[in-house]
Every structure is written in C-alpha cells, then in structure tokens.
Amino acid sequence: MALPYFLGCPQWQDSGWNTLLPPGQAPLARYSQVLNCVEGNTTFYATPSQEQCRQWRSQVPGDFRFVFKFPRRITHDQLLSGVTADTNAFLDILSPLNDVLGPMFIQLPAAFKPEHLDRLWRFMDKLPESLTCAVEVRNSAFFSKGEAEKTLNRGLRERNKARVCLDSRALFSAQPGTEIIRDAQRKKPRVPVHLLPVDAPPMIRYIGHPRLEQNPPYLAPWVERVGQWIEQGQQPYVFMHMPDNGDALALAQLWSKLLQERLPQVAALDLAAQRPQLGLF
C-alpha cells in the first residue's frame, strides 16, 4: 500500500483478520498488502532465527518496515548495562531484514531512571551508523518537565533520535468492565503525552478505547498533527493498539478514514466488507 507515512499494528496476524485481509499464503504477506509497517513485539519476548528473518523478508515488499523491539533481557533485565554481545548477536540475526528495518525500538521500563541515562547514550552510540532507533521511556521523572526530562530530550536531540510518544488516554478513559480492559490498563503506562521535535521520523503509539466509536475525539489531534507532518515532507510512524489487539486492524481502518478527511490524497485502508463486532461488553 503506497502511503506517505507508515501505519501499522502491534502484530501481523489474528484469527479475526482472516476475512478482512487480502488472500495470500502467509499472514505477514497478507498483512503487508494492506499496511506498510508493523511493531515487532515478538522480538521483545523471543529472538527469531536468522532463517525465520529470511522468510519474513521474502513475504514483504521493499517499502515495508519492521520496527522491532530490542529484547527484554537487553532493555529491562539488564537496563542496557553490559549488553554489547547480546546486542551484536541480535542485530546479526536480523541482518536478512536490514533493507526493510525501520527504527529499532528501545523501550525502557519505569525502572530505567535518570541516573541510567549514560547507559542509553553509550548504547545508542555503539549501534551501527546505518541503524536508526527510537526511544520510549516510562519513568515518571522523564515526564516532569524538570532536569531529568531536559537531559533526556537534549541527548536525543544531539543524536537526532525520536522520542516515542505513547498516548494511552483513550484506554484509561474506559470503564474496566472486562478482564481484557483491566489487563490492558494494568500493563500499559499512564503517562502524559510528550512530543520531542527532532528531524528523525516521529513515532506515535496510540492505545485505543475498546469501543471503536469512542476513539475519534482522541484521534482528532493526531490526525491534525500527522497531517501537518506529512505536508512538511516527514514520514511518521503511527501504530494502532487496542486492549484486544485483534481489534487493532479495525482501529487502523478508522484512523485512516479520519486522516483521509484531513488529507484526501492519502488513501484509506481497503478491507473486506465483513467487520468485527467491537465494544460488546
């Protein structure tokens, strides 16, 4: 799908998507006919084989982008300390995908504090020059507009690295009426929406309200912002999450329709006629 930006979900397959995606031999191949990016959560929990990476590469076009998370053991268990060997091994495994890699995703836990920032700078400075990355922080000090946040933002600007913006406001506006919603609200951070202007492509992770029809007011500011970025020639990354990520494809379709109203020249997603039933709880 030819888009002037990157749009994706946190996964490329779900049983509920079988009637929504074009036909194809593999879920990733079907997904990549509709969306041009995916957030690779799979690598956070388990590292694929190099052969698996070769198979993934064979299933996507050259303008598709994988945004893989660094493994949990690197970012969470070791907080970026003493991880050079693990990082090099991980990047070597991903090498068959080098031409379709988007920014590598450094997701840092709340346990990663301001006193750990030197680790982040050393980690990023050791990455191959050809590799870009984006950083998501969750410690409250990085959202206080104090010295810790200024230091973080300054270091990212100096390196021209994007600060991932996670918007979970819609999720936390929902009543916790089901275990799926309660689980999502337990796991997802409730942090302010802070943007950092840099030349690197912006990255937005939007966590939706479980009722699809409740999302447009929360999406509206992003429609305007992303529309402006596209008009300025930037290529932002936009990822659509839901409490049940089987519903993420429907949210991506809603988003694309709203963006097309702002930018008529940007095509909306063209999914099959059958739609999932959302918001029934």
UniProtKB/TrEMBL annotation:
Entry superkingdom: Bacteria
Gene3D superfamilies in the record: Protein of unknown function UPF0759
InterPro entries: DUF72, UPF0759_sf
Protein name: DUF72 domain-containing protein
Organism of this sequence: Marinobacter psychrophilus
Classification of source organism: Bacteria, Pseudomonadati, Pseudomonadota, Gammaproteobacteria, Pseudomonadales
